[in-house]
Amino acid sequence: MESTGEGERRTVAVLGATGQLGARVVMHLRERGVDVVEVSRGQGTDVCSGEGLDAALEGVSTVVDCLHLATLSRKRAVDFFTTTARNVLAAAQRAGVSRIVCVTILNAREPEVHRWLGYYAGKAAQEQAYRAGPVPVTMVASAQWYELAETLLSQMRIGPLSAVPGMRSRPLAVDEAAAFVVDRALEPGDSATSADAVIAGPEVRDMAELARAIEEHRGGYRKSLRIPVPFSALGNGGLLPRGDVTTAPTRFEDWLRGTS
């Protein structure tokens, strides 16, 4: 049984609980005996409008924000992540939530990074909104996931080709990112800090090359076209971690074999 350190059972709310990351965070929390409130539209809560949010956070000690929006539009991403962060902060303050853990993208706040990708600009705006709020927040900054390479195959299609930018990253498996998020969410209140917690994979890899390997491994018929981005932060190391970082152990080839 997880507790707050005062003999009370801890309850954690997971925003975006049915998404790729959120579902795994919920699983890891429950495996560790934590009471979980799944917050998503499917459970009757709309974080963007705020509908149902007060009820969802009642009795919650920690909020984990795994919200995601499938968009490449800068305006949509910034509007969504700014609005949801402000709504969560307001509801968390009313509910007496002690801490928010927000999952973000490694280096997304850097202007040289988010200028190239609208979604990253949204995550940068989310970080800014949370840091300006009244509830303590811990940012968990993750490198790109191996699963992103698969997503990129379907985002930019040109006939039989999938155009994938040659982004250099230290990617990791989403399940390892989820376990790391849970570790941060369950830190005792007296040891939790507002500093970023950063996780990345074991090797520097090219996301376009990973996408091609995934397509070939699964016997797909599409061809992956690598789009060089050498003069942007995406291709020249802007997505790589700086300073202290936790390294996830699973290499891409091992992850790929495990997905068969």
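Next protein, fold it too.
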Amino acid sequence: MLDKILNYLKYGNRFCGIEHYSSNGRDILQLCVLKQSKNELNIELAAKFETTEEASKKLSKNQHVVLVINTDKVLSKTIESEQNDALKNVYKAFPNINLDDFYFEVLSENNTHFISLCRIDYIESILKDYSEKNIHIIDISFGNTIISSVKPFTNSRTIHTSNAITTIKDSYIVQIKKDEVEPNNYDVNGLTVSNDQILSFSAALQGVLKNSTTKTNFEEKKSALLNDFKQVRFFSQFLKLGGLFILVLLLVNFFFFNQYFNKVNDLKQVSEINQSTKGQILKLDEIVSKKQKMVDDLLKSNGSKSSFYCDRIMQSLPQSILLSEFNYQPLLKRIKVDKAIELERNSISVSGASSDSDAFSKWIALLEQEDWIDKVEIIDYGSTASSVSDFRIKIVLSNE
């Protein structure tokens, strides 16, 4: 019980994994959050994002994350060797590598070794980006090696990830092959996980179980990341406990001295509430008056001629043109409180779709002949399908 309490104080009850991978030249963040309730784990959130800022908005404050870097900057190789020394296996896979510039991770499955490495400066730039968005990285993994975390909890012999196919035989991973993957769902101890989510799920699960078996040359870096998070977590928990302690003191003080309150104090409180309510009512009345003025200004700006213009344009409309917008004197800027409404006066914005370019040209020419139209500007005219073109025109009024 004490271990559970301490573990909760250190990490909370939510464990997050993020797979940072490449797709069509763009970086994608696949996020998975597991919530621990008693002795059960459930997927609370699984979503994709294109930026760390978007991802940070979905995470709770001071959430810790196990990060899987699986972009095209990660180099991966598989070798067969009876040698268990991770460093020697790295040099066997990459003979001319300068490890002063690279972090590596090695997953050994019997005599098969899966080696992934990435440049240190690239990793540091990613960690800096996450740190600036208040996402606390406590562990890092490269490529697809973290799939070993879910291996004991699934009966699937072939697992498709975001960019590779993992083959399991006799409880050992025998192959991780970069290839085109097929969408699939996997049963992981009763939880349904898609192939896009499997690596981020594995990362979150590793955060719960602490079951990593890989060897790296950046253990000190991982320890530093974990210690940084623990300090943030401790400070956060300290503030919460301190606030709770102060609240308890205030409650004790309230219950002990509440009996000395008298009717004068009660009347004073009622008076203060009435004054506050009166002030709020006056403020609301002022806000309503300003908004009413804004609405009146907007209504005044649209004269009775708008119906005339609308009717004339609609009557001239060919059957091959379908309007989607008719905006008389459109706004130049968004309406803001305490700001004057700015309109593009003496103009009408019209947009829609045309299935006949000749009819569209004749319609424009017909509009230009109207004595109340100064000119017609074609703002946009482009094809969205083989026979339909979207358009947007601006009609400048000559006598408004």
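About the second fold: The CA atoms of residues 246 and 361 lie 76 Å apart.
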